């Protein structure tokens, strides 16, 4: 089966698309209240107010759409960063992109900058993510070894977390501590369709920029000099991809908070199924990320009673041990 999927790209994409659709439908059916999803859609289009319509359109649909979009964003960005840095441990959370995006969003929100326009909040997340990617890219250098990447990511994550706490500490908001938990652990609960429309343009632009540079990732597996000889403007395409990652991750995190490890786990699980081709891995990782986050959010709702578990906790419980396995494998503890 593994060999069949690796040699049949369309079959793999179709399988992942079907699983994604099933997970999305499952998310719409998950919640404390048992409702008819079909009735909720029908009542919406017939302008008939009902409990099914309110729960579906105000609670479950925005939540499922955000899990789908954010999961796809993190999976795609993780695959892009791993290919760009040629480093198997690169991902938006580990290298500090998610935390810095959350920092930008927190600063914008708590200092009242959202009054200047709806686009200011995702713009704050975008700027924070962009700055963190630039710093990581500079610190990684030409060799982009694992040690420098991880150390830089740890430092940037620590600084981002400290500044988030500092910004909220001086905020007059009495619920600052709850917001700290939200931004540090991540969640897609209590969101509306307006949040979906806010992040959709930025994520779509980011996805397009990353996919546009997909051929560069294949060329980089042969080295930068070879990529140059093949006619690629490596410097230009590299910046396009960096901006694309910052755009989609910054917008996603500005709504959900920090959700880690999705961009690390998904590309590693799916890479053998695409013949280790970075370009093919991009769309596959996007679908895989959507599946993972939809399943994680379903798990959160099923296991939570009273106070809801944060989504970032579930992804960390999955990603943490997987990250440890990767570190041990790179140090040849396991063959």
Mean pLDDT across residues: 85
Q: Name the helicity range.
A: over 70%
Radius of gyration: 20 Å
Instruction: Give me the count of strands.
Output: 0
CATH topology term: ABC transporter involved in vitamin B12 uptake, BtuC
| Text of the CATH class | Mainly Alpha
Number of helices: 15
Q: Alpha-carbon distance between the termini?
A: 23 Å
| CATH architecture name | Orthogonal Bundle
**What low-confidence regions span 5 or more consecutive residues with pLDDT below 50?**
none
Helix/strand order: HHHHHHHHHHHHHHH
Structural class: mainly alpha
Biggest sheet: strands, sense, closure? none
The CATH homology group name? ABC transporter involved in vitamin B12 uptake, BtuC
The 3D shape can be described as globular
Count of distinct structural domains: 1
Q: Proportion of β residues? A: under 5%
Polypeptide structure, described:
- The protein is an all-alpha fold and 335 residues long.
- It has helices at 2-7, 9-28, 37-45, 51-85, 97-110, 120-140, 146-169, 176-185, 193-212, 214-220, 224-229, 234-256, 262-270, 278-303, 311-330.
- Helix 4 runs parallel beside helix 9.
Write a brief caption for the model:
This protein is an all-alpha fold.
């Amino acid at each position: 089966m593994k060999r069949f999927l690796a040699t049949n790209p369309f079959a793999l994409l179709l399988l992942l698309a079907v699983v994604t659709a099933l997970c999305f439908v499952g998310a719409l059916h998950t919640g404390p209240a048992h409702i008819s999803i079909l009735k909720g859609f029908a009542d919406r289009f017939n302008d008939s107010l009902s409990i099914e319509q309110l729960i579906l359109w105000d609670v479950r649909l925005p939540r499922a759409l955000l899990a789908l979009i954010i999961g796809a964003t993190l999976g795609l960005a993780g695959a892009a960063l791993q290919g760009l840095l040629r480093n198997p441990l690169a991902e938006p959370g580990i290298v500090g992109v998610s935390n810095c995006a959350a920092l930008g969003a927190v600063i914008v929100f708590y200092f009242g900058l959202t009054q200047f326009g709806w686009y200011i909040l995702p713009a704050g997340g975008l700027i924070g993510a962009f700055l963190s990617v630039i710093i990581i890219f500079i610190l990684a250098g030409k060799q982009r070894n694992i040690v420098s990447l991880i150390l830089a990511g740890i430092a940037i994550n620590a600084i981002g977390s400290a500044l988030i706490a500092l910004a909220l500490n001086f905020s007059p908001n009495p619920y600052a501590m709850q917001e700290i938990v939200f931004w540090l652990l991540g969640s897609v609960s209590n969101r509306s369709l307006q949040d979906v429309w806010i992040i959709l343009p930025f994520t779509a632009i980011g996805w397009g920029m990353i996919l546009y540079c997909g051929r560069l990732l294949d060329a980089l597996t042969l080295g930068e000099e070879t990529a140059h000889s093949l006619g690629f403007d490596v410097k230009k395409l590299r910046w396009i991809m960096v901006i694309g990652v910052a755009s989609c991750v910054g917008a996603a995190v500005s709504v959900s908070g920090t959700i880690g490890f999705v961009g690390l786990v998904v590309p590693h699980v799916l890479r053998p199924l695409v013949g280790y081709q970075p370009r093919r891995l991009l769309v596959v990782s996007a679908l895989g990320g959507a599946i993972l986050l939809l399943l994680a959010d379903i798990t959160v709702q099923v296991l939570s009673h009273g106070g809801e578990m944060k989504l970032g906790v579930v992804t960390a419980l999955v990603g943490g041990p997987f990250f440890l396995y990767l570190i041990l494998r790179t140090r040849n503890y396991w063959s």
